[in-house]
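User: Predict the structure for this protein chain, please.
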Amino acid sequence: MVTVVFVCLGNICRSPMAEGLFQDYLQKHGQRAAVSSRATSTWEQGNPVHPGTAKVLRKHSVDYAGKVSQRITPQDIASADLVIAMDQSNYDDLIDLGVPVQKLHLYMEYAPDSDQSIPDPWYTGNFEETEMLIRKGLAFWASAIQAR
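Assistant: Here is the predicted structure, written as structure tokens:
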């Protein structure tokens, strides 16, 4: 089974939203993968998902019970087939943490004409924009794991 880890700075907004929406997408399309999310920092370690992310996940009946922020570990890196950064800053941090470039991707690879970043709704307050951008990439990432 393919293992996918979505990564953002705090693991309370973008990456848990991507984790939940991607798991839901795969289930609805008869695909399977081991999907998780992590942070590059310890700023939010142990904290639950942001209320804005929780609202998006509840809207789609996606279970996020018990989800708390966790920093990516060497074990996560070793076991992952795909490590998907939500923006360039986290991509760069993941390189510094030793993620092999053949495993590492930017979420927005599905939209090569974009700026390659999913804006952080912790700063923008726009959880709907984050959801829209994540949703646009779900089929792309599902086909990427199917190709493995």
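The chain is about 45% helix and 15% strand.
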